[in-house]
Each structure stands twice: as structure tokens, then as C-alpha cells.
Amino acid sequence: MKLQHLLFASMVCFATEISYSQIGRDTPIFAALKKADSLLFDQGFNQCNFRALKKVLHEDLEFFHDQNGVQNSEQFYQAFSQSICSNKNFKPIRKVFEETLQVYELKNEGEVYGAIQTGQHVFYIKEPNKALYATEQARFTHTWLLENGIWKLKKILSYEHSPPEAEYGPKFDAEYVHKLFDMDAQIEDLLRKHKIPSIAIGYIKDGTLQQLRTFGVQKKGVPVSSKSIYKVASLTKPIVALVVLKLIEEGEWNLDEPLATYHVDEDIAKSQYLDKLTTRHILSHQSGFPNWRYLTADKKLSFQFAPGTQWQYSGEGFEYLRKAIEKKLKRPFEDIARETLFEPLGMHNTYFNWKGTLDDQVYAVEHDENGDPIPFEKYTHTNAAANLMTTAEEYAKFMAHILNGSGLSEKLYDEFFRTQSHEKSGIDWGLGMQLLPELPNNEVAFMHTGGDYGTKTIAIGLKNSKQGLVLFSNSENGMVLWQKIISEYFGETGKEIVRRNLE
Predict the structure, then answer these.
(1) pLDDT for 426 beyond 90
(2) At residue 19, does pLDDT exceed 70?
């Protein structure tokens, strides 16, 4: 027992000593080795600059690779010439994850004689007329010796080679290898790096909101908070869909009744498809309408195919539905939504327009790709497809409500999750949201995204485990963090959700 205690104490002392031996990133030695790493890889490896290599490689170099064995200096140079620099049309390129670099001093009687440098990197292939594509990632440990004031690389350990993480372009690449939420201070740095003013995150576990996190600023000088209100763009549509389903549940509306009974747009008054259009078609994006009439050549609404025959995303459909409901019930849709959904769920800071009590001091102003604020319009009319304003907390309450049955009958709730239309491989649509069936861990996801210039939002629910995630950002660059956050919260299930949407 005493021996075990002694061993444990020794291990603690050793771990403590190692943890304190790492030197700061702002020290001259760290900077010198970062520069040496750049000579080794950015100049030598990536550009085949042998002069740069000879500046940093020790004449008695030892190279240990977990898949290709051991090489001395001569063998290393020979392999380098033959495999790395022999074909300009198929050129390996290396990039380091700078945030993983760590340096530990080596001393003898108090004098620095060397250092150990560790980190992670990823390797790409460069081909003519092609974007770089990743082939593998790995860890490295370098032993450097300081000889006559010059840092020389004496030993290279290259190990844990593995396939790279999936890449979907710079719009979705955070360029950050550590777990995002290990250190909050680094998240702020990451937001600044990508010129993202803020991000708000709501996480649902076991059907209840478990975590609410906010980082950054609403606008310059104003920190974001749980009360910050974002414009969520097309995340308006799931809200509208559930309000409509509640009207159906109460017997005030019918899923399959022709909408022409209550509303006819003059642009389609003579269409052969007028009496075929139903609420089911609109909620599942099978209306036949374009996304918006103003994007068409003649700026008029038209059926581009018969309702119910194929999928096509349409904001016009949701607006058509809103007008039909308002005409039948003789009430503004926002009043209906507040009575049937917002008030029961405590969504007191959710608005369809600026006519209410919305305080612009809590509004998360949209920002462009350079991080500059964008002048925003204060809409005074409800749009059932866009422009809803809410907080991450309140939208997470909404998602939790869906995970817990939505207050609907079992039959109608099942209809919400039943595949109504098909967008592409692995992505279907129910009544108002995307459905992603047969995910890892026996999951089915329901989700929706929202994006206008300067604002990017997404909401995801996992039906079987009752998990959910809401991400709001007041930035044109907001999607940069999506892949990483979704993968960290949902693991393999999250990675597959990202893949299906982006590939």
C-alpha cells in the first residue's frame, strides 16, 4: 500500500513538473522554434527549398515514422527528393494547427541546450487546377538542439497518422483542432480570427434546455447575453408550421383542404392547379411555387409544377398560407402565434416584426464578412417565411417543445415526422422541417437553417435521444463554426448531419 502511495506521488510530481515546463507562446524560444518550423515545412517541405532544410536539419538527424520506419539524415534527404519533390503535378503540402504547438525547454545546469516541440498537422495534395485536398493528419514531436546560437532539428517523431476530418471549404472550416469549449478565452480569439461578432448556443438534453452559452458582442461595445435578440431568417418557418399544426389540432384548420377556399392570389387566379394546393404541400415544400416571385423573370407568382409532385423550397408558399389563415380566422397571424405558442412556452421575447415592445438595445446587429455592422431594416409587417426575431434561449424552448410532443395528438405528431417529400439523398421533409433518418446511434434528426446577409442560424433536434442544438450568429461568417460545434455536441451523429447537408 505504501509503495502504491509512493508511485502515485511520484506520478503526480512528474505530471506537475511537465505541466509547468511548457514555455509561453510569447517567449523568444517559442517564436524561434515556430520560425524554424516554418523554414522546415513552409519553405522546405511545401516549396522544396533544400537550402532552407539544411539550415534547420541536424547533420545527425533521426527520423522515426509510425508507418515508414526509421531514417537517418541521408535517407531522409533521399526520400524527400523522391517522394515529396519529384512531381510538381502531385505535390504534398503540410499545414500546422498553430494552436497545438507546445514547447518544453531542455536545460543542463540551468543553461538551455535544446527544446522539445510538439503539435498536430495535416497533409494535403496540390494538383493543377484543383483545390487542395487533405489526405491525412498526424502528431509530431521534434527534438531541437541549440548549437552556436542556431536551432537544429535532431530528432523527428511522426505518429498517429489517420484520415483527416472532412472538409467542406473555408465557409465551414474553423481551422481549430482543439475541442472548442475546453477554454472559453480561446473561443473569443476564434471569433475575432474569423471576424464573427457573436455566437449564441442553446443545448437541449433529455428534452430540456441544459446549457445556454453566449460569446462575443451584439454590436461594438455591447456584450451578447442570453437576452440578445437575433433575426433568425428562415427559422421562422418551423415556428409557423407548428402554429398551423396547433390550429389543425384545435379543429380550426385542415391539413388537406384547398387553400383557394380562403385565399387566391391574383397572379394564379386562372391556374389549373389553383384548387389542388393544400397546407400539406406548403409545409413540405411541394407547393410548386418559386422561392420568391421577385426572383423570377416576370416578378409574378406562378405554379412551376403541379402541387404535390416534387420538392422545391418556397418562402412564397408560407406567405400564401399565412394570408389564407388570416382571412379565415380574421386575426393577424402574430396574434394567433402569441396565443397558441409564444405565451404558453414563455417566449416573451419573440417577435414577427418591430411593431411590438421589442427593444433595439438588445438586438444583435447583423455584420458582413469583414466584421462590419450592416444597416438593418425594422420590418413592421409579418412574413411567415422570414424575419422572426428571438433569443437562442427561446428558440431552444421551442425545439424542446417539439421533442416533448409539441402538445399535439399522437397521430398529428407522427404526421409531423412522417416523410412528406424528398430533397436529396439522406434528407427528406416532414411538415415544416428537414428530416434526416437512419443516422448513427439509431437517430432521426429534424432541423432547419436560416440565413440572410449578416445572420446565420441553425436548429437541430435528435428525436430518439431528445437532444437539441440551437446556434445563432450575427455574422455572414457564422457558418464557419457550425461543423465543429455540431460534431462536438453530437459526435458521429453530428458529423453525419453535417456531411449530408454539405456534400
Answers:
(1) yes
(2) no
* Of residues 450, 494, 493, 491, the one with CA closest to residue 472: 450
Span 343-367, mean pLDDT? Answer: 93
CA distance 334 to 322: 10
Q: Is 111 exposed, middle or buried (0-12, 13-18, 19+ CB in 10 A)?
A: exposed
- In this predicted model, what pLDDT tens digit does every residue of 187-244 receive, in sequence order? 788 888 899 999 999 999 999 998 899 999 999 999 999 999 999 999 999 999 999 9
CA distance 348 to 398: 12
- Cell numbers placing 51: 537550402
Q: Is the pLDDT of residue 180 over 60?
A: no
Which residue type does 112 have?
V
Instruction: Report CA 87 to chain centroid distance, whole Å.
Output: 36
Alpha helices in 209-294 (DSSP H): 236-249, 279-283
Is the CB of residue 255 less than 8 Å from the CB of residue 246?
no
- Rg (Cα) of the chain, in Å, rounded? 28
DSSP string across 432-490: SSEEEEEEGGGEEEEEEEEEETTEEEEEEEETTTTEEEEEEESSTTGGGGHHHHHHHHH
Q: For residue 377, give the C-alpha cell.
A: 431594416
Burial class (CB in 10 A: 0-12, 13-18, 19+), 37: buried
Retrieve residue 203's grid coordinates. 443545448
- Give the mean pLDDT of the chain: 89
Which residues are CB-neighbours of 408 under 8 A, at least 6 positions away? 245, 246, 249, 416
Q: Helix 236-249 vs helix 315-329: angle between axes, to the nearest 10 degrees?
A: 40
- Residue 250 grid cell: 384545435
Confidence of residue 51 (pLDDT cuts 50, 70, 90): confident
- How far, in Å, CA of 212 to CA of 202, rounded? 5
Measured CA to CA, the distance from residue 366 to residue 133 in angstroms comes to 32
pLDDT at 5: 42
Place of cell 527528393: 81
Q: Tell me, what DSSP letter sits at residue 164? A: P
**DSSP strand pairing (434-439 vs 427-429):** antiparallel
- 373, exposed or middle or buried, with CB in 10 Å at 0-12, 13-18, 19+? middle
